[in-house]
Write a structure and sequence with these properties.
This protein is of the alpha/beta class. It contains eleven helices and 17 strands. Helix 8 links the parallel strand 13 and strand 14.
């Protein structure tokens, strides 16, 4: 079969699309005929190389994808050939203290398909049955591929971890990205007043269409100063920061007393300076969040399938042009997710 792969870490020129061994299906796995995949910034970091992750090479990336069940392992009961399925990439052990308490994304052995183990950006993929969700008829493959990772991440961040309430103010940084544009929609759905940042008027207009009440061009002014002005110096109740070191101090400065900063990533770097005096004097909370539990995945994807949330797709490309897909993400071109389709499906 054909698959996206890289044999070493590096720039986009290490990405290949070519022959790769057909997957062997284990008893608890499902063979998926992949119809579409989608990229996340995680794919860029993984291609560059992440500290502490020693990948078997060549590595097939891809933590988002959707397709048709082609075959099932002997122990699989939830799916049968012909089912339409999407990947939910977080893998938990099922028996540690956190899994037994229903907090699978805190599993001590937690890992992500496409990051730590081979992913779904190939013509076919063998996926654990526990990591697949059914897609209703009528949902486009591109939507099904683009939604799971970012919407589950944003849902857990805002609804579970930050406990966002109707009437609160929330700032979403990087609203044109995958998690960012999902967070704008979820915050609006909850009933919050949404402030969003972006780097162009076109991106800000799109954020407004998805539910942002106020849009800030961070290339023209400091977003934290804009927040103080727009909120009458109060600040916001919640900041969604998946950007990292470049925004960390501004995120803390944007919070009202008793505010919560919730983070799921560090795209611009892992180390941010914290004024500890601001933290304790304003009684702020800093909350980490990773992926979601199976129940949270079901809750948010049901809303996606119903059309309450819209995965924005900036471009759809053949898998053979995955290098270009990486460039779109790295250069922050466009709004939303980048989708890749197996060349044999085009």
């Amino acid at each position: 079969m054909q698959a996206v792969q890289f044999r070493e870490h590096g720039d986009t020129d290490v990405i290949e699309y070519g022959e790769y061994p057909d997957p062997v299906v284990a008893d608890d796995e499902v063979l998926v005929d992949v119809k579409a995949g989608a990229l996340n910034h995680l794919d860029v970091w993984n291609r560059r190389g992440l500290p502490g992750i020693d990948l078997a090479m060549p590595h097939v990336p891809g933590s988002d994808g959707a397709g048709v069940v082609e075959a099932v392992g002997g122990a699989v009961e939830r799916f049968e050939p012909g089912d339409r399925v999407a990947l939910s990439a977080g893998v938990s052990c099922g028996h540690c203290e956190f899994c037994r308490d229903g907090e699978e994304s805190m599993c001590v052995n937690y890992h992500i398909i496409g990051e730590h183990v081979p992913g779904i950006h190939a013509e076919r993929a063998a996926i654990p049955a526990d990591n697949l969700v059914l897609i209703p008829e009528g949902v486009d493959w591109e939507v099904a591929a683009a939604a799971p990772l970012v919407f589950q991440t944003a849902w857990r961040m805002l609804v579970t971890r930050a406990d966002l309430q109707p009437g609160e103010d929330v700032l979403v940084l990087g609203a044109s990205g995958g998690v960012g544009h999902a967070a704008v929609q979820i915050a609006d759905y909850v009933g919050a007043t949404v402030y969003a940042t972006g780097s162009s008027e076109a991106k800000l207009d799109r954020a407004r269409e998805l539910g942002a009440d106020h849009a800030i061009d961070y290339t023209e002014r400091d977003f934290d100063g804009a927040i103080r002005e727009l909120t009458g110096k109060r600040g916001v109740d919640v900041v969604v920061d998946h950007v990292g070191s470049q925004t960390w101090e501004g995120s803390l400065r944007s919070l009202a007393k008793g505010g919560r900063l919730v983070t799921c990533g560090a795209t611009t770097g892992p180390t941010g300076e914290t004024d500890i005096r601001r933290l304790f004097w304003n009684q702020l909370e800093v909350i980490g969040s990773t992926m979601a539990t199976p129940g949270e995945v079901d809750d948010v994807l049901e809303l996606v399938w119903e059309g309450a949330f819209e995965p924005a797709i900036r471009e759809t490309l053949p898998m053979s042009e995955t290098a270009r897909a990486h460039e779109l993400i790295e250069n922050r071109e466009g709004f939303g997710k980048v989708v890749v389709i197996p060349d044999s499906e085009l």
